Amino acid sequence: MKKYLLVFFIIVSVLGFKTVDRPITIFIAGDSTAQTYNEEKDGLIKGWGQMLPLLFSDNVKVVNHAMGGRSTKTFISEGRWDRLLSEVKAGDYVFIQFGHNDASTRPDRHASYDDYRKNLVRMVEDVKAKGGNPVLLTSVVMRTFRDGSLIDDRLKGYPVITRRIAKEYDVPMIDINLKTRDFVTMLGDEDSKPYYRWVEPGIDHAKPEGLKDDTHMMEKGAKQIACFVAEGIKELNLQGLSEYVRLNND
Questions:
Q1: Largest CA distance in the chain
Q2: Is the Cβ–Cβ distance between 69 and 103 less than 8 Å?
Q3: What is the rounded radius of gyration, in angstroms, for the C-alpha atoms of the chain?
Q4: What whole-number distance in Å separates Cα of residue 111 and Cα of residue 172?
Q5: C-alpha dihedral, 48 to 74 to 72 to 226, nearest 10°
Q6: Strand residue runs (E) in 41-182
Q7: pTM: predicted TM-score of the whole model, two decimal places
Q8: 230 in a domain, yes or no?
Q9: Phi, then psi, of 102 in degrees rounded to 5
Q10: Where do the SGNH hydrolase-type esterase domain residues begin and end (predicted)?
């Protein structure tokens, strides 16, 4: 009888441990538009990655590896990709968003279209090999108006390549470039400025002289992009994530 009781308690214990599920983790690989900032040091600039946890319940953890000035080339060459990948466990998600610095004319950052494609494909395949779930995101639109119309020609073909890879490799994609383009177009030139890092002199201690930045976001803009990401998660019905998204209209 003691033997059967022992076996019973062992089975119960094992089953009990199995029912304790760890939170699904979202890892973010990206650039300054997604980065987490320290307001004391960096001022009022914010990245959408640091706002994303506000849109989930406790069942989802966000680990933000995004870093300013990084392209797919430098994110890999500096070892940042390998460090991120070493933390990924089966079932986790890796959100990958690059393009701004790949399109840069700076030789240390620039990645050609061919290299950008190869780097993104490598990232996708690396995540899948770990049992994780890659999700591609196109770049945040750069707020450039000409004659009253939004003209974002600085990102060139990089968002197009991202879309093609998503289709070819059957990878979920959130088209942040399209979502932000539509949003900024709807707002227009003047009303879109408060979302980006347009600050008057004396407002931001990190830029006391003021700033007109059409690439990076203030808190208002970073929150809006995080909402677009969360909406994209729900639209894609990403397993283990979409059910925990908390938007205002939920």
A1: 87
A2: no
A3: 21
A4: 23
A5: 0
A6: 60-64, 93-96, 133-137, 145-146, 149-150, 173-174
A7: 0.89
A8: yes
A9: -65, -35
A10: 30-221
Q: Residue 137's Cα: distance from chain center in Å?
A: 7
Helix (H, G, I), strand (E, B) or coil at 11: helix
Number of other CB atoms surrounding residue 143 within 10 Å: 25
Tokens of 113: 């279209």
| Residue 2 domain-assigned (yes or no) | no
Per-residue pLDDT of the chain (250 residues; tens, 9 = 90+): 545 444 444 444 444 433 336 789 999 999 999 999 999 999 999 999 999 999 998 899 999 999 999 999 999 999 999 999 999 999 999 999 999 999 999 999 999 999 999 999 999 999 999 999 999 999 999 999 998 899 877 888 999 999 999 999 999 999 999 999 999 999 999 999 999 999 999 999 989 999 999 999 999 999 999 999 999 999 999 999 999 999 875 5
Q: In the chain, what is the straight-line distance between the N-terminal and C-terminal CA atoms, in Å?
A: 53
Quote the CA–CA distance of 96 and 32 in Å, as a whole number. Answer: 13
Q: Which amino acid is at 188?
A: G
d(CA 204, CA 184): 23
Which residues are designated catalytic? 32, 209, 216
- Which two tokens mark 54? 């506000």
Counting Cα atoms < 13 Å in the Cβ hemisphere of 146 gives 5
- Give the structural domain span for 162: 24-244
Which tokens go with 59? 């069942």
Residue 197 structure tokens: 């890092």
Residue 11: inside a domain: no
List, in sequence order, every residue forming a beta bridge with 133; answer none if it has no partner.
Answer: 93
Q: What is the CATH number of the domain that holds 193?
A: 3.40.50.1110
Determine, yes or no, domain membership for 125. yes
- β 145-146/149-150 pair status: antiparallel
